[in-house]
């Protein structure tokens, strides 16, 4: 669903999503990606950092945590129907917006040649985590670099111009994607990040997880377009099922 002069949604042939940490893409765009994948889109997920600071337990071994989070990300990607999860290998909490990081984004875009690139909105106000800010800016600049052959010519890769850039966690969304069909896959992908249940999802057991899923459904139901009365699907029981949404700021003049 679009508002005003915002771009229209469509199912791309190829999509490349960038996230700062394991599970960030799932939170920001997981259901949308799952719906695209189910309709034949080739979805690739690229995660900037290794997730090595994502633990509260002081006895956690960092190298073991890196391996756990890599395996969790792979399992989550499978739940969404993604063809690949690329771990870019930067240290969690130490990601910086630098030319080498932009070059790495540019390289992945030129290799995978997506129609749509997705990433964090770097202009989100009062954003606390530096990795999200730096990942967002590196993604935006990587899109610009990938389209012009004089950026990073040493890569030896042909330039590629995506059709659109979709920014999740957007301060000013201009596109709302209904996600009822993909919500279950989104939750299953997030569930694959078991190491983050307590610290990120606030769940220590299956009951806690169920409460988290209910809270997420309420959140994405309230995240719809403003001043819009959306059609509500009717369940077989006759009850009304609220429409769930993921919101984005879409830049379609890339």
What's the N-to-C terminus distance?
21 Å
Low-pLDDT windows of residues = 2-6, 229-238
Specify the overall morphology. globular
Helical fraction: 25-40%
- CATH fold-type name: Rossmann fold
CA-atom Rg in angstroms? 18 Å
| CATH homologous superfamily grouping | LmbE-like
Major sheet? 7 strands, mixed
CATH class: Alpha Beta
The tally of structural domains comes to 1
What portion of the residues fall into strands of 2 or more residues?
15-25%
- Count of individual beta strands: 7
Number of helices: 7
- Note the run of SSEs as H and E: EHEHEHEHEEHHHE
- The mean pLDDT is 91
* Main structural class: alpha/beta
Question: Strands of the largest sheet, in order across it?
Answer: 3-2-1-4-5-7-6
CATH architecture call:
3-Layer(aba) Sandwich
Notes on the structure:
This protein is of the alpha/beta class. The protein has a single domain (14-251), classed as 3-Layer(aba) Sandwich (Rossmann fold), CATH 3.40.50. It has seven helices and seven strands; from the N terminus they run βαβαβαβαββαααβ. The chain has helices at residues 24-38, 62-80, 99-112, 130-147, 183-191, 197-201, 206-222, and strands at 14-19, 42-49, 84-90, 116-120, 164-168, 175-178, 245-251. The protein has a seven-stranded mixed sheet with strand order 3-2-1-4-5-7-6, sandwiched between helices. Strand 4, helix 4 (130-147) and strand 5 (164-168) form a beta-alpha-beta unit. Helix 1 packs across helix 5, helix 2 packs antiparallel against helix 5 and helix 3 (99-112) crosses helix 4. The protein is globular, with a radius of gyration of 18 Å. The two termini are 21 Å apart. Mean pLDDT is 91; it is low at 2-6 and 229-238.
């Amino acid at each position: 669903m679009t508002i005003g002069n915002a771009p229209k949604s469509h199912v791309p042939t190829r999509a490349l999503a960038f996230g700062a940490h394991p599970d960030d893409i799932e939170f920001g765009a997981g259901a949308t990606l799952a719906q695209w994948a189910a309709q034949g889109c080739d979805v690739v997920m690229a995660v900037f950092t290794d997730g090595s600071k994502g633990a509260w337990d002081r006895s956690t071994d960092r190298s073991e945590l890196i391996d756990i989070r890599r395996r969790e990300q792979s399992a989550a990607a499978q739940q969404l129907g993604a063809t690949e999860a690329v771990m870019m290998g930067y240290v969690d909490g130490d990601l910086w917006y630098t030319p080498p990081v932009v070059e790495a984004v540019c390289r992945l875009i030129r290799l995978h040649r997506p129609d749509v690139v997705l990433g964090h909105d770097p202009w989100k106000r009062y954003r606390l985590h530096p990795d999200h800010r730096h990942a967002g800016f590196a993604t935006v600049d990587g899109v610009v670099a990938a389209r012009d052959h004089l950026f990073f010519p040493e890569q030896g890769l042909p330039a590629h111009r995506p059709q659109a850039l979709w920014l999740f966690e957007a301060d000013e969304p201009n596109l709302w994607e209904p996600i009822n069909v993909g919500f279950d896959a989104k939750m299953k992908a997030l569930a694959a990040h078991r190491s983050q249940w307590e610290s990120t999802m606030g769940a220590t057991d299956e009951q806690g997880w169920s409460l988290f899923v209910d809270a997420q459904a309420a959140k994405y139901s309230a995240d719809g377009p403003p001043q819009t009365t959306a059609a509500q699907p009717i369940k077989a029981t006759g009850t009304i099922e609220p429409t769930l949404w993921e919101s984005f700021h879409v830049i379609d003049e890339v």
